[in-house]
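hey so i finally got around to running the thing on that chain from the lab meeting. sorry it took forever, my laptop kept dying and i had to restart like 3 times. anyway pasting the input first so we r on the same page abt which one it is
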Amino acid sequence: VALRSVAEFLQSCLSGKEIEELLVPEGTLTQYRKVLDVVQPACGHSCCFTKNYGRYLRGTGSVLNCAGEVCAAQDDGTRSSCPSDSTAEKLRYFSPQEVASLMCFPADFAFPEQVTAKQRYRCLGNSLNVLVVAWLLRYLFTTRLSAAL
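ok and heres what got predicted. didnt touch it at all, straight out
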């Protein structure tokens, strides 16, 4: 399986208002910058997202460095390593839909409109990647069936 970049999971249709709502506040950055897992769109990894993502920063999931550009997906095809610190950071949270996408939920997956962002993060927190679970189940049943024969 080919490694996919974070950019491939980002929403390309976020409005300016939606992006502003996802930005990590400056005061929060000053206080918690050293404990954040910051990823770039070209990165091939992110941390596990917990149900407290968006409320707490320490160990609850990665944040995206938009570097002053529009924070939507703009994959340039590179798979470079991710700088851990940048002088021109503009950090934002992943949207709930992006977290679901990173967990390989189907492209047409959507929450009901009345579910708040906080509730969406709580539902997605500590989820398992759908493709990983499918692979493990396939392996388990294939191995057990082969061993039983």
